[in-house]
Amino acid sequence: MNGPRWIYWKQTFRSKFQAGCVKAKLEDNWHNGYEICPLVEIIKLKNEKYVVRFTYDE
User: Fold this and answer.
1) Domain residue spans in the chain?
2) From the CA atom positions of the chain, what is the Rg in Å?
3) How far, CA to CA in Å, does 55 sit from each of 23, 39, 40, 42, 52?
4) What is the tens place of the pLDDT at every residue in 4-54?
């Protein structure tokens, strides 16, 4: 079995708080829908910025 397929949010963030807001919004959108919520992660990049990624299953 392959690992999850990750989709990266198109924007990087200067703070973990900003990235956390997007993470919460993504999770909230799925919880209110009919699909199973994806895994959503915040990753710190080498340039001290943060990016949000989430899983995609076909």
Assistant:
1) 5-56
2) 12
3) 12, 5, 7, 12, 11
4) 788 999 999 999 999 999 999 888 776 666 666 678 999 999 999 999 999
